[in-house]
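Two folds, back to back.
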Amino acid sequence: MQNFVLHFKRIFYNLGFFARTLKGIISFIRNYKATYKILVMQILFTFVYALGITTLLALAIGAAVNVIGGPFLTGINQSQLMYSLLIIIITREFGPLLTAFIVIARSATAIATEIAGMVVSHEVEAYISVGVDPIEHIAVPRFLGVTISLVLLNLYFSIFGLAGSYLIAQFFYSTPMDYYFNSILSHLHIRDVLLSIIKSIAFGTIISIGAVINGFSVERASTEVPVAGLKAVSSSFAYCIIVNVLLSVLFYIILV
C-alpha cells in the first residue's frame, strides 16, 4: 500500500514538473538568446547525430517488410495490401517507437547524467543563487530539443523506410517508381500521419521530462549519477511502450 501511495505521488510530481516546464516555455521564448545554444546543441545531438542509425534501421525495416510480406500477399492475390502494410508498420507503428528507442538510448542517458552531474557539482545551486531558473535554463531547451528532434526523426524514418521498401520492390519485382509511390500516397491518410506525429510528441515528452526529473533527483553522491541515467532509460522504455499501446488502441477504436 505504501509503495502504491509513493508511486501515485510520483506521478503527480511528474505531472506538476511537466506543467512547470510548459510554463517555462514562455520565458524561454522571451529570453531565448540565453539558452538558444542549448536548444540547438540538443537538436544537433538528438536529431542530426542519430541520422545514420535511423537511416540504417529504416531501410532494413522497409526492406524486411517487402521481402517477407511481398511473396505471401502475392501468393494469395492480395499484393495491393502491401502498401497498407507498409504504412501501418513503418509510418504508424514502428517509425515512432523505434525512433523513440534510438533517442532513449542516446539522449535520455546523456541528459540524465549531465544534469545529475550539475546537481552533484552544485552548478544548479549556482544558477539559483544568481537568479536563473534551472527549469527555464536546463529543462525547457532539452524538452523542446528532444521533442522536435523526435518528430523530425520519425518523419525521416518513414521516408527512408518507404524508400528502402521501393528499392527491394524494384530489385525483385521491377515495380515502376511512379506506380509504387502513387500507390503509397493513395493508401496514406492524414490520420496515419497525425497519429505518428502525436506519438512522437508524446514519446519526446516522456523521454525528456523523465530524463530531466531523474537528473534533478540525485542528492550529493557522485555514485548516483549513473543510476539516474539507468532510471531514465528504464522508465522511458516502459512508459513509451505503454503510451504506444494506448494511442494505437484509441486510434483503432475512434478512427478506424
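---
second:
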Amino acid sequence: MKLSKLLLIIVAIVAVVPSCKKTTTQLEDDTKAIKNYLSANGIQAQESNKVFYQVITEGTGEQCNPGDTVAVKYKMATIESPDKIVQQNKGDKAVIYFLPSTLGSSSDDGAPIYGVQLGMVTMKEGGKSRFYIPSSYAYGSSYVGPDSVSYANIIYEVELCEILRRDKKH
C-alpha cells in the first residue's frame, strides 16, 4: 500500500512539473504587458516590430531613417511607474542620437536602445511621439533607475527636433 501511494505521488509530481515550465518568451510577456497597459489606460497606439507608438504631434519635416544623426528631447518612465521620470534630457537642451545604418546595432557611439531606434524611424522631423518599448528591446534584466524593476517595459517620449545629417548611403 505504501509503495502505491508513493508511486501515485511521483506520478502527480511528474505530471505537474512540466506544466510549471515557462512556455512564452520574455518578448511575448513584455508585449502582452504593454497591450494590457494600453488597454487598461484607453491608449490608442500603433505597433511596429513589437514597439507600440502613439503620435502626439505629426512632424512636417523629413522622415527619420536608419543612419541619420538626430537632435531629440526625451523623457523616459516605465509602465510600472508611468508618472515617475527615470531619465530625460537636461533642461531644454536636445541630445544627439546616432541611428545605426542597421537598426539594432549598438556599436555606433551614441546609438539609443533598440526600441527607440525602431520608434524613431516612424517619425518625421518636428514630430513628437510616445513609444511603449518591451524590456527585451530596452534594458532587459538591468534596472533603469533606483526604484525600477528588472525587465521594465519602457515609456519613451521623444520630440524629434532636427535631423542633423544623413548617412551618405541614402
